[in-house]
Automatic annotation (TrEMBL):
This is Bacterial-type extracellular deoxyribonuclease. It comes from the Eukaryota. Residues 1-17 form the signal peptide. InterPro entries: GmrSD_C.
Length: 199
């Protein structure tokens, strides 16, 4: 009985890390009202390589390694900054992983979505900064399959299966779009407003 209770308690206290810089509901609503609403323009010119990603962000840590260290529980890293131990609980689906290669680093606002909503006009340096932003809520440690299911979808097309993260997800999305002056479509705006209603 004690072993069963310990297992239940252990699973109940899994550490779910949330990236920094997510605004409150009221701030998110204010930011959302100031975003430019415009059609998403997919002209077929997007290429992931236009966003240099997993660049060095601190010492010998690249952005991916930095987020694995930041958002894991009990993480230890080697001299190359790659994790040697730790666990990561995905905020999107609640799954916990202990193998770093099973964890994907999700660009909350996908690179393709950014390209279609303003980033096509940026310099390469600006796109690199966006793709490696560890200071705001743009990079999340998530389950690989869930990240693949999301793909380049905006919130009107995909939302995390864990509904208890929807408020923070929407607020984070709005913050990133506001920080980088990216547009939102009308359906995206409506979906974000709906998600904020679950706060």
């Amino acid at each position: 009985m004690k072993a069963v209770l310990a297992a239940v308690l252990s699973s109940a206290i899994a550490v779910v890390a949330i990236p920094p810089g997510i605004p409150s509901e009221s701030t998110a609503r204010s930011l959302l009202s100031s975003l430019t609403v415009a059609p998403t323009v997919n002209d077929g010119t997007y290429d992931r390589d236009l966003f240099p990603h997993w660049s060095a962000v601190e010492g010998n840590c690249n952005a991916r390694e930095f987020v694995l260290r930041r958002d894991g529980d009990g993480v230890t890293v080697g001299n190359d900054c790659y994790p040697t131990a730790g666990t990561w609980t995905c905020p999107f689906d609640g799954e916990t992983h202990s193998v770093p290669s099973d964890v994907s680093i999700d660009h909350l606002v996908p690179l393709h979505n950014a390209w279609m909503t303003g980033a096509s006009e940026w310099t390469t340096a600006e796109r690199e900064a966006f793709a490696n932003d560890v200071d705001g809520p743009q990079l999340w440690a998530v389950t690989g399959t869930t990240n693949s299911q999301k793909g380049s979808d905006a919130p009107d097309e995909w939302q995390p299966p864990q509904t208890n993260i929807h408020c923070k997800y929407a607020a984070a999305w709005i913050q990133v779009k506001s920080t980088y002056d990216l547009t939102v479509s009308s359906s995206e705006q409506a979906a974000l407003e709906e998600m904020l209603g679950r706060c």
